[in-house]
Design goal:
Elements (H helix, E strand, L loop, with lengths): L10 H7 L12 E5 L10 H10 L3 E8 L8 E8 L3 E2 L2 E4 L4 E2 L6 E7 L2 E7 L5 E5 L5 E4 L3 E7 L5 E8 L4 E2 L1 H6 L3 E6 L2 E6 L4
Antiparallel strand pairs: 1-2, 2-3, 3-12, 4-5, 5-11, 6-13, 7-10, 7-12, 8-9, 8-11, 14-15
The structure holds 5-phospho-D-arabinohydroxamic acid and zinc ion.
Length: 196
């Protein structure tokens, strides 16, 4: 993993960096995922084990802001996904479906370069949609979603979702996404997950 950008940005600092002065992120819990937490997510298991033997860097951080539950309420998460690769595969989040499958989500890119891998649970079809500074991605319900950082700086984004969405990681952990985003000739390319 390229760890040169790691530990430099904290969600606590993002509020200031983006003028989000009212959210007081520093007072909210932050989930931090390190490389070891992503076991099983990357396609190249040998590259994953080799990277982990060398280091267990921080991959991403999410600060969830969940002011109220109940019908009609919204939650949001501020994410920082650090750059790097495992083998040819870009740095990524675990990815999930919402426990309440109809729950959609809107992602807003604040900084960096990346994309979202969207996989429709019903049809199995995948899409790679750009998510970088100034880009907005609508994630429909019934859609597994994973964020990837295809750049060389931290990818910073906000995801807004219904308060009753819930997060189902188990379904993805069981079968993983059908597609992978690999670097080919310096560019991100959406490919079928290699069979083991
Ligand atoms: C986001 C995600 C965030 C981290 O806030 O939770 O990008 O990804 P994982 O949750 O898959 O580790 C979101 O989609 N919330 O619903
Ligand atoms: Zn989500």
């Amino acid at each position: 993993m390229n760890s040169s950008h790691l530990e430099k940005i904290r969600p606590e600092d993002i509020a200031v960096a983006f003028g989000l002065t009212d959210v007081r992120l520093g007072e909210r819990p932050v989930v931090r995922r390190h490389l070891a937490d992503l076991r099983g997510c990357f396609a190249d298991e040998a590259a994953f084990e080799a990277a982990l033997a060398a280091d267990n860097p921080l991959l991403y951080e999410v600060c969830a802001v969940e002011p109220a539950d109940g019908d009609g309420q919204l939650h949001y998460g501020l994410g920082v996904l650090y750059p790097g690769k495992v083998g040819d595969e870009y740095s990524l989040t675990k990815g999930h479906l919402h426990s309440h499958r109809p729950a959609a989500e809107v992602y807003i890119g604040l900084a960096g370069e990346g994309a979202m891998l969207l996989e429709d649970e019903t049809t199995g079809t995948s899409r790679l949609v750009p998510l970088g500074k100034g880009q907005i991605v609508y994630v429909p319900g019934h859609t597994a979603h994973r964020t990837v950082n295809t750049g060389s700086a931290p990818l910073v984004y906000i995801g807004v979702y219904p308060a009753n969405a819930g997060h189902d990681y188990a379904s993805i952990a069981e079968r993983n996404f059908r597609k992978v985003i690999l670097e080919r000739d310096g560019e991100p390319v959406l490919l079928d997950r290699p069979t083991r």
